[in-house]
Amino acid sequence: MRSSYACSMLLLALVTTAPAAQANNSSYPTYKPSSRSLAAVDIRTSAYGASRDAPEAADIGERIADFSVRRAGGGLLSLREARRNGPVVIIFYRGHW
Amino acid sequence: MQLGELQHQYPRFVRRDATIMALSVDPADESLGMIERLGLAFAVGSDPNQRIIQQFRVQNPDTRELALHAVYVLNEQAEVIYRKVGLRRPQSAELIDAIDAYYGNYPQHDNVSKVADRIAVAYPQNNFQALLEVARVEAPPSSIDQALLAETMRLITNGRSDDAVFAFRRLIAASPEATDLELYATTAWMTRQRFFSTNPDAITTGKELQRRLARLSELEAAVRDNRDKSQSTSLYTALGQARAGLSATRAKVSREAAAWNLRYAKTMIRSYRELARAARSPTPT
Questions:
Q1: Chain A residues within 8 A of B79 when measuring between CB atoms
Q2: Can you spell out the DSSP letters for B152-210?
Q3: B189 close to B169: Cβ distance less than 8 angstroms
């Protein structure tokens, strides 16, 4: 009971000393860019997915030229073919390491 | 996001007519074992000359022949509608949300209506971001300040789990759907590391654990050194006793941690409910 009371008081103290609350009324998806980020932000913004390690990485709105690569198991993997059906999720992973 | 987790959520992408391409520099045939092991149903491609990596400009600055971990979502015109480069790896739900938002269907939850069902889906992923995925529900926007909550959770979780802030806020906001038991379980899970870091009782138990581990190690060394077998009986008896003692202490730690975490979780749930109520209450004028 005492610890609960202490915890409540701590939270109350934080409420009263914190800057004015800013309601997040966005109806768009918001996530934290990294585990160190304090706040979640709109994932559709350029800043959201940007990396210091790749400042020139393809950005939101940029058009990607069609490409094709060898597909594991045989055949080719074509962006042009894939995007005919709908959105395309492209994941760069490190492979065997 | 790992490829296995993506496969787990693959049907959700299929329902959205989305195609997944996973690219690496590995030769195409070298990925077959991984595909089979993870049961991947989506396409895995090979970019051994980093041609596509360079096209997206996501070369790893430390190892130029590899890409940074990066995820892109393109629309039918091949325009980037979402990207995440070299940062916290997104969960599949984040990509689903990006697609749904672009096509005007956000939020959409695939008819998974109960918080408990979402927890069941996300628990195997076993991290805080998964909790955020679970908790991405139709909760009314909270007026609780996020920075305040982040600070509060930093105090609660030693600053190592701030993703939990947002997950927890949404769980609380959705609490009419969630049972107390679900919330307790979730919070206890989130705070399990707190037992040894902040609980004074754990120091005693921790010392006992260390003492027993040291004793066991000492006896095992003695058994190895007892080449002439002169003390075998007494040594093996002591070894058996040490192992049994260690096992009992480990069970004790487990029991104490579970009980402590549950008490701690209950305290946190109460505090957050009060905070949420206070934030929702109209300010007196």
A1: 61-64
A2: HHHHHHTTS-THHHHHHHHHHHTTTTS-HHHHHHHHHHHTTTHHHHH-HHHHHHHHHHH
A3: no
Size (chain B), residues: 285
Look at strands B19-24 and A88-92 and give their pairing.
parallel
**Candidate ranges A12-21, B5-14, B35-44, B47-56; pick with highest mean pLDDT:** B47-56
The answer to whether A54 contacts B152, with C-beta atoms less than 8 Å apart, is no
Give helix B180-190 / helix B232-280 axis angle, nearest 10°. 120
Compute the residue count for chain A: 97
Min distance B51 CA to chain A CA atoms (Å): 9
Asked if A13 is an interface residue toward chain B (Cβ–Cβ < 8 A), one would say no
Q: Which is higher by pLDDT, B155 or B230?
A: B230
| B152-155 contacts, C-beta under 8 A, 24 or more apart | B152/A10, B152/A11, B152/A14, B155/A10
What is the second-level CATH architecture of the domain B3-102? Answer: 3-Layer(aba) Sandwich (3.40)
Residue of B nearest to A16 (CA): B148
CA distance A68 to chain B (A): 9
Instruction: Tell me the C-alpha distance between B191 and B31, whole Å.
Output: 38
Residue of B nearest to A20 (CA): B145
pLDDT, tens digit, 9 for 90 and up, residues A72-95 = 988 999 999 999 989 999 999 886
Interface of A with B in 34-73 (CB under 8 A): 34-36, 38-40, 43-44, 48-54, 56-67, 69-73
Please report residues of A whose CB lies closer than 8 A to that of B56.
57-58, 64, 90, 92
Q: Domain residues of chain B, as ranges?
A: 3-102, 112-285
Q: Contacts of residue B20 in chain A, CB cutoff 8 Å?
A: 88-89, 91
Over residues A29-61, the pLDDT tens digits come to 777 777 566 666 788 889 889 988 899 999 999
For B131-187, the pLDDT digits (tens) are 443 343 323 334 333 333 333 333 333 333 444 444 555 555 554 444 554 455 455
Q: State residue B8's pLDDT score.
A: 76
pLDDT computed for residue A89 by the predictor: 97
The residue of chain A with its CA nearest to that of B144 is A21
**In angstroms, what separates the C-alpha of B29 from chain A's closest C-alpha?**
5
Rounded to whole angstroms, the Cα distance separating B7 from B119 reads: 18
